[in-house]
Amino acid sequence: MGSVAHKTAVTLQTPYQRIYATVRRIPPGRVASYGQVARLAGLRGRARQVGYALHVLRGDDVPWHRVVNVAGRISLRGPSALTQRIRLAHEGVACDANGRVDIARFGWRPRSRAR
DNA sequence: GGTCTGACTAGGT
DNA sequence: AACCTAGCCAGAC
Known about the structure:
By secondary structure, this protein is mostly helical. Helices cover 44% and strands 3% of the residues. It has a two-stranded parallel ribbon with strand order 1-2. The protein binds a DNA duplex (13 and 13 nucleotides) through helix 3, helix 4, strand 2 and helix 5.
């Protein structure tokens, strides 16, 4: 059948592109975990790959600051962690005294698409 | 080729 | 609560 055309269409987007597309869907004022992004991108279980994809990002085309770990903590170390915290605060997402984002309050819960 | 690292996570002790 | 382990996989060396 049209297996070749189908395969081509699926392969058109690399895993990284799917990750970036998913992160771009996170609305301002919301956060998603690495594992959640992986799942939504069709890459279940590859949370580390999401971290690496964001790590190698250049520029600000992707709102990488809206991704935190599953505990609500900022996983970055160094000055970039402060950048992330500031950007989140600018969107109304504050960290508590322990440096955590309240996932119950700010976690992104997309209505449609894969959980 | 092998080995190690990391912006991860779930599950167990 | 902290700590450990397995699973994950692209890069770096």
